[in-house]
Amino acid sequence: MLVLGLETSCDDTGAGLVEDGRLLAHVVASQEIHLEYGGVVPELASRAHITLLPRMVADVLGKAGRRLEEIDAVAATIGPGLVGSLLVGLEFAKGFAQARGIPFVGVNHVEAHLLSPGLEHQLPLPLLGMVASGGHTEIYHLRAPGVAARLGSTRDDAAGEAFDKVGKLLGLPYPGGPHVDRLAREGNASAFPFPVARLGNDNFDLSFSGLKTAVKRAVEREPQPLSEQRIRDVAASTEKAVVTALIDRLSLALEKHPSRALGLAGGCACNTLLRREAERLGRERGIPVLIPSPILCRDNGAMIAYAGWQTLVCGLRTPLTVSAIPNLDAFPAA
Asked: For burial by CB atoms within 10 Å, which of 14, 28, 105, 127 has the most?
């Protein structure tokens, strides 16, 4: 079964092809128009998806050496995300499915991220998975295909949002996360004792709004403008605080929910320190750590196609009457 997956939940336009669970090809186009605004402008994002999506579909078919007529099913993100962006991909996919008379599957964006390590690895179950990005920071226990529980989530800012906001404070280009990661490699992570929020041992929730405030106050106390080295030190200290919080919650979750593997996904899973610390935690617990290649950590159509394929294998499909659900929940809380 050849499944086309479309991802348009925010500002990345992605298309992917998965055949019987195997990734054939995927392409992603980033919308650079948002750089000058320091964040995503929803109206501009949805307009860009309209322009980019047909080209992305043509590109992924060409990359895989397949024809439009060979597609057996189409999947698209239905939420969560920006409603305008979601509608572009969703209506494109529904129209394509109706015109071709093939199945359509609406995919939850967060669930697709959680399953995305399966594009490159076998997923032993039960699996403890974390999705960390600019919009989400959530921990799940995946017990069986389609059966999972959300153990915890951020109570305010997402991890990637914290990185981006600190990047903006430091005058770094948007999105700030990759730039903080790069600068942190040459900084002193102990230069600033930024707080790590620990919300007790009876839950797995996280909080990053206090970190953002602490960084802002620390920067304001420094001689201005900040030297290049102090910028690196702030980046390294911020990264240390964020990663420490994430690993702390994952470690606690593994204690209370034994798992056969640890999975990371979402844009923050590209972070060098987080990947290294997750590998260390996995070695300590004697379980594999499954992290997609960096290009598959960001929003992409491949994960949508893969999640859609899994749904279709279970004999399910989505009615064409479905609409975008901007605040769609993934698996329910435990």
From this structure: 14
